[in-house]
Amino acid sequence: IQLSTHATENGVGGVLVVPPFHFIDPAEDGLLATYERIIAGVDSPDLRLYFYHYPNLTDVPVPFPVIETLYERYPQRVAGIKDSGNEWDHQDALCSSFPDLQVFTGSERHLTPLLRAGGAGCISATVNVTAPLAQQVVRDWKTDAQFASTQSTLTELRTRLSQFPTIPALKQLIAWRHDRPEWTRVRPPQAPLDDDEKNRLQSLHETLWAEVDQALA
Fold first, then answer.
1. d(CA 86, CA 143)
2. How far apart are CA 116 and CA 138, in angstroms?
3. How far is residue 140's CA from residue 109's CA, in Å, rounded to a whole number?
4. Domains and their CATH numbers in the chain
5. With contact defined as beta carbons under 8 Å apart, do 56 and 84 qualify?
6. pTM (2 decimals)?
7. % helix / strand / coil in the chain, to the nearest 5?
8. DSSP structure class, residue 147
9. Short-list 77, 73, 67, CA closest to 31
């Protein structure tokens, strides 16, 4: 509540909130009470709350009835959902069930189909390096241009990135890009890439930035 209040008071676009996951399989009433307590605790008309559905990490999904009930009760506070479950059928169902909410995919792989289904876009750690390509997909979709090729490239790069530990790999790619080796430092429990991982990432590094530079041209 303190973090959400601080963020809201400082003008963030929204707060992304995972369900409580210390206790496994909480009741829907418990999830409702949790989110209602956050909304009441922040107590601001500027709050924009986004549900963070990430069951692979939390082991606690955000059920559709919870989203529906909270949106009915707080239509000016509940803004959308980020779905990092990586199941397209679930993301598609969110778009069709909640057309008035912003639905974001957690993977660039699903960006084009999500936009077609009425979704809002993509929130992904790897967009730290793929952003120009993702932006091109959105731009082409908005102008009815051909974007299958860019989406295919984006999907391939995201798939290749997923073969590495995400945070160390992203830091390494950006460090190479800007010649800042100190940017590869990570904090526990993350660990730096080993030599084999660096060697494998090097080929992706060259392909990735070539595609990014082309998108920026």
1. 27
2. 10
3. 16
4. 1-124 (3.20.20.70), 125-217 (no CATH)
5. yes
6. 0.93
7. 60, 10, 35
8. -
9. 67
